[in-house]
Design goal:
The protein is of the alpha+beta class and 879 residues long. 40% of the residues lie in helices and 21% in strands. It has an eight-stranded mixed sheet with strand order 6-5-9-3-2-12-15-14, with no helix packed on it. The protein has a five-stranded mixed sheet with strand order 17-18-19-21-20, with helices on one face. The structure holds arginine and zinc ion. Arginine (ARG) binds at residues 126-127, 264-265, 267-269, 302-303, 325, 378, 381.
């Protein structure tokens, strides 16, 4: 472990112990100032055993005074360490502890606890930020009632916000003022929040179904108010939807959202006072793309839905993170599916899952959705906990159906409202409400890591009109520590039978062990098994794992003809998309393996033509059906990955399609163009996506379409089109790109969100100039390493320029490591997040592995390395 033992200290799920003492009430009094904030805290502690020591978490706190039940606490009665404060020989079962601490928001670049974003003071306390505000039992199973008073300079901080309801405010001498807040709901410390600053705002209200009026506010930097309206509309939609679909109503009298520019994550569900990354609140026609709008709608929903799944019922410990995150992602996905297009939503959610979670699950960083141990819980806000977690919830939904699921949710709130619970408690509720649900076997999805593979063969018996589905499930052992990982999972497989004439039929099943066939779902429970169907008139073509009913790799012996049949006839739009992706990925794979360039089969061209000409498919679905798997998805089929050839092969496919359909693409582009002017509107998203896809194909054909792309850039009146154009210009028309980039940069210099988007189009080149370019971008006066959005856009996009990041010189790995080292001293969770990029190590060539290892070793030698970064680097290095 290379001398890192001191930092790499693991916490294990099996060591969880119930609290032997707890804090029940909290009074906090803040004198706010960016340089030095004074935090006076009065907490009520109840202890079972009067003789036990009491430990309170606390980090980077400057303790000024400490009193117990009004008396100065003697030095022998407490001990301070870098982790916190231990109270000794108290001899009481109930007492009040008062502490006074100094903290410095301005110096807090980790963005955990109380920090400064621009001129706004704000907090981020999940998972363990509260211990940087005051001494506390900073774990989620300590739920307490909070009262808060904020005092600050009125000019600098005219708005003073905290959780719950405002109970008073007033002016004070010396230009100061105060406000007090009370939250009637007991909550864990990670949901505590305050905000102070000069804020613009918009207001609205929502009438709940029981007739209560909720005041809604969105706060932002002054001047940004007009960009908050879409977020407000989304909030109102989310509140209504949660009442209709889940019968859940909001519980406080006011709901506030604050947009800030510096934020480590996307957003945070603090009770009654959500704090958001501005990228997920602010939008207008000129600055936000359609995908920005869609992301805002979904994250506004997500944080709102947490009020019940997360806040009213919270997690017992951080191993249970998926209890609230998996469930809440599932809820936000359903929200978007219900109010937009279900098929499009599902395709996009699965696309995200396959691009980020599948690779994570195949890497040294793989972990179960409920991990067994961690060094820094901050490193576990992952695609696995969130997105695979949501897939696990979706499988329950698939098995028990919407009604059964809602019965289970009702049970969950009936049993656990107001408590901090576990994923078992959730499964227990689902089981009680749905006795046929085998929650026991299902539990394995929570404790096993890795994407399972499912192999399927079919056998048609013409004489008896029967069909046998033969399956085998497998979980590859991923790591050296191949622990558990082999219990068979309960895999819900949604499937359809399609006849050679394209019609779908539904055979019968005799098997009593298949209670879900009414929903078109078979449950595969064994490592190897068979399912027998009757009344099968013809040899079927199977549509398997419809809507991605389970998050698996599916392996079948289907031929190209069979796949093309599904691509043409499958009524499940999701599967139609999936099989299209498979057809393309198979071809790219074959081309990669072959010595000379392959020609695209005319059958594939015909299949594309049929989609393009099919009047019954809407534009958005067409855009998806005609899109090509990303490099990241293609890489997952290779070991070692050939980054350069993958890109070339993918380009060859795209270029062939562009040539084959040149005239049609141009025609479609021209027809759709007038319909897609203007700002975001749900009915414009599809046509705009299809139109821009056509333009992307045409741009590949070179100079003859240069004018079209440049006109598109000049004339576009919205950021979706503008961004597509600038991306294409940087990708295909390098010699003209410079002047366009300059004018774009001049125009948007003062808009961080636009600059951050633009930066992602600046790291595309496939020669070594990119390395210089990255450093030039970093040197821009607007670029700021302490603002996570800048770091993500520059270094994230650079690391997705695969052929350059993995360049044979090792230069890509090296400048990336330089950045990680620099960042660790600023923002440790960002440094750790970047370092995860190297997890691809186990899939690259031996030569690249060596180069990655030497960068990892260099990072690990850092003298003051954070435990966040050390955990990630150590794990990848030792794989
Ligand atoms: N609970 C927040 C959400 O999912 C995210 C908090 C992120 N925290 C972190 N340390 N990464 O809505
Ligand atoms: Zn969440």
């Amino acid at each position: 472990m290379k001398g890192q033992d001191a930092i790499i200290q693991k916490t294990h799920l099996k060591d969880y112990c119930k609290l032997k003492y707890k804090i029940t009430n909290v009074d906090l009094d803040f004198s706010l100032d960016s340089k030095l904030t004074i935090v006076k805290s009065k907490i009520l502690i109840e202890s079972i055993d009067p003789n036990q020591d009491i430990f309170l978490h606390g980090e980077a706190l400057d303790l000024q005074s400490i009193h117990l039940d009004g008396h100065n606490l003697a030095e022998e009665n407490y001990e301070l360490s870098s982790q916190g404060l231990t109270l000794k020989n108290i001899n009481k079962t109930k007492f009040e502890l008062t502490t006074l601490c100094h903290i410095s928001p301005e110096k807090n670049l980790a963005l955990e606890g109380l920090y400064l974003s621009g001129d706004i003071l704000c907090t981020q306390n999940e998972p363990e930020g509260f211990r940087r505000i005051t001494y506390f039992i900073d774990r989620p199973d300590n739920m307490a009632i909070y009262n808060v008073k904020l005092t600050a300079n009125k000019k600098l901080y005219p708005y003073l916000l905290a959780n719950g309801n405002c109970t008073g405010f007033g002016d004070l001498p010396n230009g100061l003022h105060w406000a007090s807040w009370a939250d009637p709901f007991p909550k864990p410390s990670y949901l505590f929040a305050i905000v102070a600053g000069q804020l613009g705002h918009i207001k609205n209200s929502f009438k709940t179904k029981s007739g209560r009026n909720i005041a809604l506010s969105i706060y932002c930097d002054p001047g940004q108010e007009s960009r908050c309206h879409f977020a407000m509309e989304s909030l109102i939609k989310a509140m209504k939807w949660d009442e209709q679909r889940f019968d859940l109503e909001y519980d406080l009298d006011q709901y506030m959202i604050v947009s800030v520019g510096s934020f480590n994550a996307g957003a945070m569900e603090n009770k009654g006072l959500n704090i958001f990354n501005s990228a997920l609140v602010l939008a207008d026609q000129a600055t936000a793309t359609d995908s920005d709008y869609m992301a805002i709608e979904s994250v506004i929903g997500h944080e709102y839905f947490h009020n019940w799944t997360g806040n009213r019922i919270t997690c017992r410990d951080w191993f249970q993170l998926t209890l609230k995150e998996g469930l809440t992602v599932f809820r936000d996905q359903e929200f978007s599916a219900d109010i937009n297009s279900r098929a499009v939503q599902r395709i996009q959610d699965v696309k995200g899952l396959k691009e980020t979670q599948f690779p994570e699950d195949a890497s040294p960083m793989a972990h179960p959705i409920r991990p067994d141990s961690y060094v820094q819980i901050n490193n576990f806000y992952t695609a696995t906990v969130y997105e695979k977690g949501a897939e696990v919830i979706r499988m329950i939904h698939t098995l028990v159906g919407e009604e059964g699921f809602q019965r289970g949710m009702k049970k969950y709130f009936e049993l656990f409202d107001g408590q901090a619970v576990t994923t078992e408690d959730f499964l227990h509720s689902m089981k009680i409400a749905n006795p046929h649900f085998d929650s026991n076997q299902f539990q394995n999805w929570y404790s096993q890591k890795g994407t399972p593979s499912l192999e399927i063969h079919g056998h048609f018996d013409q004489d008896h009109n029967s069909f046998e589905l033969i399956y085998k499930q497998q979980q590859k052992s991923l790591n050296k520590d191949s622990e558990i990982n082999n219990k068979p999972l309960l895999i819900p497989l949604k499937m359809g039978f399609i006849a050679p004439n394209g019609e779908e039929f539904k055979p019968k099943l005799k098997d009593d062990a298949q209670p879900y066939w009414d929903q078109g779902v078979v449950a595969l429970t064994k490592t190897e098994g068979k399912v027998k169907f009757y009344d099968v008139p013809v040899k079927p073509i199977l549509s398997l794992n419809r809507s991605l009913s389970s998050p698996i790799y599916l392996n079948t012996d289907a031929s190209l003809e069979q796949d093309l049949h599904l691509f043409k006839y499958d009524k499940d739009h999701f599967n139609r998309y999936e099989v299209g992706q498979k057809i393309i990925a198979d071809w790219i794979g074959e081309n990669l393996a072959s010595k000379s360039k392959l020609d695209l089969s005319p059958k594939i061209i015909t299949a594309f033509a049929e989609i393009i000409n099919d009047q019954s498919i809407d534009d958005h679905m067409k855009a998806l059906l005609l899109s090509v798997p990303t490099e990241s998805v293609l890489h997952q089929r290779q070991k070692p990955i050939d980054f350069i050839k993958t890109k070339l092969s993918r380009d060859l496919f795209l270029n062939t399609i562009a040539q084959a359909f040149e005239l049609q693409f141009l025609q479609i582009y021209k027809n759709l163009y007038p319909k897609t002017k203007g700002g975001f509107a749900s009915e414009k998203v599809g046509p705009r996506a299809f139109k821009n896809l056509c333009l992307s194909f045409l741009a590949r054909l070179g100079d003859s379409y240069k004018h079209l792309v440049f006109d598109h850039y000049q004339e576009s009146d919205n950021m979706t089109d503008q961004f597509t154009a600038i991306y294409l210009i940087n990708n295909y028309f390098e010699s003209e790109a410079l002047s366009v980039n300059n004018s774009f940069y001049q125009k948007w210099q003062n808009e961080d969100l636009v600059l951050q988007k633009w930066i992602t189009t600046q790291t595309l080149g496939s020669d070594e100039k990119v390395f210089t370019k990255v450093n030039q971008l970093k040197a821009l006066p607007e670029y700021d390493s302490s603002i996570p959005n800048y770091v993500r856009s520059l270094w994230g996009s650079f690391s997705r320029n695969y052929s350059m990041f993995h360049h044979s010189s090792g230069k890509g790995y090296q400048i990336f490591a330089d950045q990680i080292i620099e960042l660790d001293g600023i923002n440790r969770s960002m440094a750790a997040a970047l370092a995860k990029t190297y997890r691809i190590k186990t899939s690259v060539s031996e030569q690249n592995k060596k180069m990655i290892n030497s960068e990892l070793e260099r990072i690990l030698k850092l003298t003051h390395i954070s435990s966040n970064l050390a955990e990630v680097v150590d794990q990848i290095l030792n794989s």
